[in-house]
Amino acid sequence: MRTIDCSEVRAAVAAELIRTNREIGPDILAALEQGLRVEESSAGRAVLGQLIENDRLAAREGLPICQDTGMVIAFVTLGQEVHFTGGSFREAVDGAVRDAYREAGLRNSVVRDPLYGRENTGDNTPAVIHLDLVPGDGLEVDLMVKGFGSENMSALTLLSPSEGEAGVRRFVLDAVRRAGPNPCPPIVAGLGLGGTFEQSALLSKRALLRPLGRPNPDPRYAALERSLLEDINRLGIGPAGLGGRITALAVHVETYPTHIASIPAALNISCHASRHARVTL
Hints:
Elements (H helix, E strand, L loop, with lengths): L1 E4 H17 L3 H13 L3 H20 L9 E9 L2 E4 L3 H15 L24 E7 L4 E8 L1 H4 L3 E5 L4 H16 L7 E9 L1 H11 L11 H15 L14 E11 L4 E8 L4 E6 L1
Parallel strand pairs: 1-3, 2-4, 7-8
Antiparallel strand pairs: 2-5, 5-10, 6-9, 7-9
Helix pairs in contact: 1-4, 2-3
């Protein structure tokens, strides 16, 4: 049995939330720079150049990459031999959100009720927490700061098995085409396939945590990722929706076994400010 004090969790998560709101990942920055090298549209090149400059300035000046500092999602991989002391894990994560958003002056964007009395909670809590219990005594917290300009453009469907790969392609391209400029392209597209209605959505969001440039380990899905990226970038939406070839920086596919009667498919879209970090304790 291993003991972890909740104060350790709170401090480590808060530090990473501040950092990831200010410093874009090197994988995203490299993809933007590569996009600038190949973009042919003058408007698209101008947008990509501004995004790269913005990301560098944010890191240098200690300012948020984007004014939408998002809602915090935590994918927690917890060893079953871990025992928490000094409070609850939930309060440690929510406390970290409070600390980070107050200390760094980040915008609070969470309301208490989705439909009635949409009053701001004032501290960007609560976080959304997904737990995976595994053998051992480790703790990993994968954090995502998700803006809702892109979140609002996500989509989910349950396809007939007979629709196959063609149906999946049609679903993805239709969703990206409908989204147009709204998710602040260039985007990162997370595609979840399999499981159930809700599992496919979780897969699609988890797909966004994978570093750009790391393909799905299954060569069939790696090929699907590449071809979907090519198809999306042929739509001509371009950076900021102003036209061009760089509509997406990457497509990531995650899968799970499913029922014989369905292909659950979910697309979670992230804008170019795809912010994520990992805490390991």
